[in-house]
Write a structure and sequence with these properties.
The complex is a heterodimer.
Chain A lengths: L1 E14 L2 E14 L3 E5 L6 H8 L7 E11 L4 E3 L5 H10 L1 E4 L3 H4 L6 H12 L5 H14 L16 H13 L5 E5 L7 H18 L2 E6 L2 H7 L2 E6 L2 E7 H6 L4 H9 L48 E2 L4 E2 L2 H6 L6
Parallel strand pairs in A: 3-8, 3-9, 6-7, 7-8
Antiparallel strand pairs in A: 1-2, 1-4, 4-5, 9-10, 10-12, 11-12
Chain B lengths: L1 H27 L4 H8 L6 H11 L6 H13 L14 H36 L8 H10 L2 H15 L19 H38 L2 H8 L4 H13 L4 H13 L2 H6 L5 H10 L3 H29 L8
The chains are: A alpha/beta, B mainly alpha.
The structure holds adenosine-5'-triphosphate and magnesium ion.
């Protein structure tokens, strides 16, 4: 059962040097209660996609096409068409966001407790002051922050605690979907582990679905149920974490897998991906990845591959589309 | 609190330096106020009177240290010597007579200009792309025009041509100073035009400054997050964006408050307003050193007090400054 369906979503940034196609015809499903991982190099459009889902983009960003359909129990709504009031209710009650940097996403002049409290005050007007206070303490405790910290300002907390506070704010209204944009990237590995573990536990307890964004594919493998790989604003492969790990079908996925040392198991050489990400204002013709692809053949420079369903998951690669040839490992 | 104590110590030190310079400079200059006064009276002065005046001005042949200690003692009792222009009135009396007019007119006008400018700046940033953008070219124009020009233009239009407002004095000749209706309304009526010139001339800077900081702040993640939280746009605009955007503007506000006392000269000249600025002009015209010194001292202290107020405001408004270093 899908809770969120993104269909044909495209986002452009209108800049002086040309139009940046940051998100290009992306379609994704998010199932109720799952963790969907979204991976891709820096600049591949992950944050833009995340912001588009919450309709949080500002000029010069512009959604040029597509829909984001949210499924309630008995109805479905296109988030991109919600009227201001309905949008405000949708935000945080149904969709919450943990932003890429917790330091910057917390209001520096407001105590963390107050930043949870103001969500409750707006969305739960019937809640008494005392009840709100108790809920704030409860939420903080739930993410491992002691009650006396609710009066602390963001700068008084460690990076890990700020990230936990941001997660506590996201949990405040028990939303159906939480978008987490690199929630652990700025943290050291031990804290990162703790928080990932925390997110899984909370998810099992509260039952929300997560879109988890990172460029660290090995990390996604551990936490996600399903994974979508983005390249140059497009989704190039989707599949369960297991399948992607065992048999990646897009050469880019393979490259990403090899870019990171395995957390467990024997060490392999870090091959990574040669070259640099393309200029999103002027994409190469055909498959955007072909200039960097070691398995590229003539057609790759001419034909744009479509995202097609395969035996498991989907992939956008001519190797799979026409010939069925396996990716050369 | 350590931060405030440190700042306070710094300001006390600065105040002491200002006071000491105020003592030293006239004593290092050739001639003294009494000689000046005698010269102005063309020498027709009784030697006994000269001696009395020297005493009144605190000038003696005693050693500099003794004079310094005397000077500090006098200062502590609010004695700044006697004015030459208005001899034998005490400088303190002149300043306390003029200061309320300046603080009342320029201070209140500065406050209004700041509040209004901040408000318009916030709204102009928030409603970018609406009719409020029209504020910008006007502000930029006002920002570039000298105050003097604005004041004269308004005086010409509203004072001389339309005769809506009086163009000089602090209150009408037909009222006597007292806390009653006729006097107060006469004061307000007379203050209106000069206050408007100050507000108009200084508000443009406020609007542009506030709008710039606000536009930057609106791009911050915490503002996007506030929006994502589904808060009302009023709350996002004020509690998240504007609340942070005013912080960098506190210093400039303190500076303009500090210059209320010193920066009133032009306004008071244009409108013959009986404040500190007019007194300073008179003192300069008459080489009235005691009065000048007294006024400079008050101006320096005003700047220091304003800066200390800014520090206080920072401590109240920005929790990051409260951090114990
Ligand atoms: N305001 C903007 N104006 C023009 N281009 C922009 C703007 N913001 C982002 N972009 C471009 O859009 C593309 C996608 O950016 P986005 O932030 O979504 O990438 P990302 O995948 O989240 O990267 P990262 O891993 O670094 O966070 C990038 O190429 C970026 O240069
Ligand atoms: Mg990003």
């Amino acid at each position: 059962m899908n809770v969120l369906e993104i269909r044909g979503l495209s986002v452009d940034y209108l800049s002086a040097g040309g139009t940046v196609h940051a998100v290009d015809d992306v379609s994704l499903d998010l199932r109720r209660g799952e963790i969907l991982g979204l991976a891709g190099e820096s600049g591949s459009g992950k944050s833009t996609l995340a912001h588009a889902i919450g309709r949080l983009l500002r000029p010069p960003a512009m959604i040029t096409a597509g829909s984001v359909v949210y499924h309630r129990k008995d109805e479905q709504v296109d988030v991109l068409k919600l009227a201001p009031k309905a949008l405000r209710a949708f935000r945080w009650k149904e969709l919450a966001v943990v932003f890429q940097s917790a330091m910057n996403s917390l209001n520096p002049v407001m105590a963390v407790g107050a930043q949870i409290d103001d969500v409750l005050r707006i969305h739960e007007p019937d809640m008494s002051r005392k009840a709100r206070g108790e809920r704030v303490v409860e939420l903080l405790r739930r993410v491992g922050i002691s009650a006396d910290r609710r009066k602390s300002y963001p700068h008084e907390l460690s990076g890990g605690m700020r990230q936990r506070a941001a997660i506590a704010i996201a949990l405040a209204l028990n939303p159906e979907v939480i978008v987490m944009d690199e929630p652990t990237t700025a943290l050291d590995v031990v804290v990162q582990r703790d928080i990932l573990h925390e997110i899984r536990t909370l998810k099992d307890e509260y039952g929300f679905a997560v879109i988890f964004i990172t460029h660290d594919l090995s990390l996604l493998m551990e936490i996600s149920d399903r994974i979508a790989i983005m390249y140059a604003g497009r989704v190039v492969e989707t599949g369960t974490a297991k399948e992607l790990h065992r048999s990646p079908r897009h050469p880019y996925t393979l490259g990403l897998l090899r870019s990171f040392p395995k957390l467990r198991g024997p060490r392999e050489d870090l091959l990574g991906i040669p070259g640099t990400p393309p200029d999103l204002r002027d994409l190469p013709p055909g498959c955007a990845f072909h200039p960097r692809c070691q398995s590229a053949f003539d057609d790759c420079g001419r034909v744009s591959p479509r995202l097609l369903p395969g035996p498991h998951g989907e992939v956008a690669c001519l190797l799979n589309e026409n010939t069925g040839v396996e990716v050369q490992a | 609190m350590r931060f405030l104590a440190r700042r306070l110590g710094f300001y006390l030190l600065t105040a002491w330096a200002a006071v000491t310079l105020n003592f030293l400079i006239p004593r290092m200059m050739p001639g003294d106020p009494v000689d000046l006064l005698v010269a102005r009276l063309k020498g027709n002065v009784d030697p006994a009177a000269i001696e009395a005046m020297k005493q009144a001005f605190g000038i003696s042949d005693a050693n500099l240290w003794v004079q310094y200690v005397d000077y500090l003692g006098n200062l502590f009792n609010g004695e700044l010597g006697r004015s030459i222009t208005f001899f034998p009135t005490e400088v303190t009396t002149i300043i306390t007579g003029a200061l309320p007019w300046t603080v009342g007119l320029v201070g209140v006008a500065t406050l209004i200009s700041y509040l209004l400018g901040t408000l318009l700046g916030v709204l102009a940033a928030w409603k970018r792309g609406s009719w409020l953008d029209g504020v910008l070219p006007v502000s930029t124009f006002m920002h570039a025009v000298p105050y003097f020009w604005v004041a004269l233009a308004l005086v010409f239009v509203f004072g001389v041509t339309l005769r809506w407002f009086p163009v000089s004095r602090a209150y009408g000749l037909d009222v006597v100073p007292a806390w009653d209706g006729p006097f107060v309304s006469s004061v307000l009526y007379h203050a209106a035009l000069p206050a408007i010139t100050i507000v108009i001339a200084s508000m443009a800077d406020r609007i542009l400054g506030m709008r710039n900081v606000m536009v930057t702040t609106l791009g911050e993640d915490y503002v996007v997050m506030a929006e994502a939280k589904g808060l009302t746009s009023r709350r996002v605009m004020w509690a998240y964006a504007a609340r942070n955007a005013i912080l960098p503007n506190i210093t400039s506000f303190a500076l303009s408050l500090g210059f209320v006392v010193g920066g009133s000269v032009l306004t008071e000249i244009v409108f013959s307003y009986p404040g500190i600025g007019s007194m300073l002009l008179k003192a300069v015209e008459n080489e009235d050193f005691p009065l000048m010194q007294g006024i400079f001292l008050v101006i320096s202290l005003a700047v220091l007090v304003a800066n200390f107020l800014a520090d206080l405001a920072y401590v109240v408004l920005d929790p990051r400054t409260r951090q114990e270093a």
